[in-house]
């Protein structure tokens, strides 16, 4: 299933794509694409619905982030060896964990606002993992059973705030709008192998990032098992699993985002995002 949320910011309604790719409203069935709805029982209830009988959403509404009420937005850094190399950093011995503020979460086609005074705003296409059931001390073997589904994430980053100040990466990762999720949450049954997905990102119609999740240093199951030893993962938590090479910081000379730039990024089978960069104006 492809689950999504549509409507104005903060007022998104739950929905599902039907076989023809049309949006069907789910608000008569569930409150949101969030929390218990992401559990195996919750997803089974939606799977049992006759989509033809759900209200058709006409026009082209704004899409919101495909998951609501995200509790934790966890990210793995330097998880592709070729990206670690372009960043001038060593291949990590264990997953590098950082967090993004949940207030950074945005819709897949919302404008990317370049923060006030920012000079080094960068892109990162990533596979997002949405947790469906509580996970604490889970083995690698059982880890994927805790996944509700997958989505595209753009882990936008302001490199100066991330790397040139003091403290952790979180400042450079958490600016408003720096976490577009979607367009949809693709349930786990439609993604038989999360380690065989093709990711790509175009800036102004030119390809900058291309990669496969087969090249991850730590795979999805290993990441979930690892994180669950440090904190309990809950339904609706999102884990962004790292980016393949081709980010702006890795180019010689570096190329950072400017107002008017257009990003298009996606993962084959999980849909694509489209963003226009705009100046901070409020
Ligand atoms: Zn990242």
What is this structure's SSE topology?
Blueprint lengths: L1 E5 L6 E5 L5 E3 L14 H8 L25 E5 L3 H6 L9 E4 L5 E2 L5 E3 L6 E2 L2 E7 L8 H4 L3 E8 L2 E2 H6 L5 H4 L5 E2 L4 E3 L10 E6 L2 E7 L7 H8 L10 E3 L21 E6 L3 E9 L3
Parallel strand pairs: 4-16, 6-12, 7-18
Antiparallel strand pairs: 1-2, 1-13, 2-3, 4-5, 8-11, 9-10, 9-16, 10-13, 14-15, 14-17, 17-18
The structure holds zinc ion (ZN).
Zinc ion binds next to loops.
Structural class: alpha+beta
- Biggest sheet descriptor: 9 strands, mixed
Number of domains: 1
Helix content: 10-25%
Describe the strand arrangement of the main beta sheet, using strand numbers.
3-2-1-13-10-9-16-4-5
- The CATH architecture would be Alpha-Beta Complex
Task: Please characterize this protein's 3D structure.
With 282 residues, the protein is of the alpha+beta class. It has a single domain (68-279), classed as Fumarylacetoacetase-like, C-terminal domain (Fumarylacetoacetate hydrolase, domain 2), CATH 3.90.850.10. The protein has helices at 40-47, 81-86, 140-143, 159-164, 170-173, 220-227, and strands spanning 2-6, 13-17, 23-25, 73-77, 96-99, 105-106, 112-114, 121-122, 125-131, 147-154, 157-158, 179-180, 185-187, 198-203, 206-212, 238-240, 262-267, 271-279. Strands 3-2-1-13-10-9-16-4-5 form a nine-stranded mixed sheet, covered by helices on one side. A five-stranded mixed sheet has the order 7-18-17-14-15, with no helix packed on it. The longest helix has 8 residues, at 40-47. The chain starts with a strand and ends with a strand. 47% of the residues are buried. The model has no long low-confidence stretch (mean pLDDT 96).
């Amino acid at each position: 299933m492809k689950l999504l949320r549509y409507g104005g910011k903060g007022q998104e309604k739950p929905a599902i794509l039907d076989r023809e790719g049309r949006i069907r409203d789910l608000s008569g069935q569930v409150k949101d694409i969030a929390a218990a709805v992401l559990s195996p029982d919750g997803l089974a209830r939606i799977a049992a619905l006759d989509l033809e009988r759900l209200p058709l959403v006409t026009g082209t509404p704004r899409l919101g982030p495909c998951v609501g009420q995200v509790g934790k937005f966890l990210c793995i850094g330097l998880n592709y060896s070729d990206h670690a190399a372009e960043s001038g950093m060593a291949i990590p011995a264990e997953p590098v964990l950082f967090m993004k503020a949940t207030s950074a979460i945005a819709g897949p086609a919302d404008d990317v606002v370049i923060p006030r005074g920012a000079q080094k705003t960068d892109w990162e296409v990533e596979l997002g993992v949405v947790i469906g059931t509580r996970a604490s001390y889970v083995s690698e073997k059982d880890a994927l059973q805790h996944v509700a589904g997958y989505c595209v994430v753009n882990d936008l980053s302001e490199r100066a705030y991330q790397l040139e100040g003091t403290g952790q990466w979180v400042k450079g990762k958490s600016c408003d709008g720096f976490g577009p999720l979607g367009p949809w949450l693709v349930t786990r049954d439609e993604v038989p192998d999360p380690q065989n997905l093709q990711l790509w990102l175009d800036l102004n119609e030119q390809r900058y990032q291309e990669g496969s999740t087969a090249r991850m240093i730590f795979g999805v199951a290993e990441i979930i098992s690892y994180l669950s030893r440090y904190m309990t993962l809950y339904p609706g938590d999102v884990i962004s699993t790292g980016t393949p090479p081709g980010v702006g910081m890795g180019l010689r000379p570096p190329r950072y985002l400017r107002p008017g730039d257009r990003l298009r990024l996606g993962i084959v089978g999980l849909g694509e995002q489209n963003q226009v960069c705009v100046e901070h104006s409020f």
